[in-house]
Specification:
Shape: globular
CATH class of the largest domain: Alpha Beta
CATH topology of the largest domain: Rossmann fold
Number of helices: 9
Number of domains: 2
Largest sheet: 4 strands, parallel
Structural class: alpha/beta
Helix content: 40-55%
Number of strands: 8
CATH architecture of the largest domain: 3-Layer(aba) Sandwich
Distance between the termini: 12 Å
Strand order of the largest sheet: 2-1-3-4
Length: about 230
């Protein structure tokens, strides 16, 4: 099966993640068929609790089950805050189930030792930091991480004030740039801010592009095994 024939399920916890991943597929894998599954209440609840509850895990599991039952070749979760859940449930399915940011994290660890993380959802910052530390430990590489969370930017995007959202992120980029080898945007919804940054002297990584390549690669790899 060629990649143009793949059908991929996208699991969203916020509308802000939808457009960035659709644009990334259109650029890098335009022939892939996409099916979207959404539970926006997940991100609102996560902002209130600050951690992923058992009920949230069950709801995510149900979304993935719906996607798999629809006949997809793979599933991609577009909210990095729920990455640890994917590691818990992916083995339950016969198709690849990936999270948005793991390929980006691997890339960041390869690039440098001083890593900056910017998030706009409270839980996403610590989640990304812990995953970076875990991956670096597995690779035997020492890294230093500086994490900044900007909840006002997420709220601005919810209020459709994309200019304020981008400006707040740009400010943090400027603050981190001098002390970091690479900077990560922890969420899909932040990718839009990269378009307005002209002087990118420090590499800035976003997850939509890397996750598109990762899910397609994983599907094709499994086909070879089968």
């Amino acid at each position: 099966m060629a990649s143009k024939d793949y059908k991929i399920g996208l699991i969203h916890a916020t509308m802000n993640s939808v457009q960035p991943i659709l644009e990334a597929f259109q650029v890098h894998e335009p022939q892939v068929r996409l099916i979207n599954f959404m539970d926006e209440s997940l991100i609102f609840e996560l902002n209130e609790t600050g951690f992923v509850t058992k009920d949230m895990k069950r709801r995510l599991l149900n979304l993935v089950e719906k996607a798999v039952k629809s006949g997809v070749d793979g599933v991609l979760l577009t909210c990095s805050s729920f990455t640890p859940v994917v590691e818990e449930i992916s083995h339950l399915f016969d198709v690849p189930v990936l999270t948005a940011d793991l390929s980006m994290l691997e890339n960041a660890i390869e690039i440098g030792h001083q890593i900056g993380v910017i998030a706009t959802v409270e839980a996403a910052g610590p989640t990304t930091t812990k995953l970076l530390e875990k991956r670096a430990l597995e690779k035997g590489k020492e890294i230093s991480i500086k994490t900044e969370v900007i909840p006002d930017a997420f709220q601005a995007l919810q209020n459709r004030d994309s200019v304020k959202h981008d400006e707040l992120i740009h400010k943090k980029v400027e603050e981190l740039r001098g002390n970091c080898d690479v900077i990560l945007f922890a969420q899909f919804s932040m990718a839009r801010a990269l378009k307005r940054i002209d002087d990118v002297t420090t590499p800035i990584l976003t997850s939509p592009q890397t996750s598109v390549k990762a899910i397609v690669h994983e599907i094709s790899k499994r086909e070879v095994v089968l």
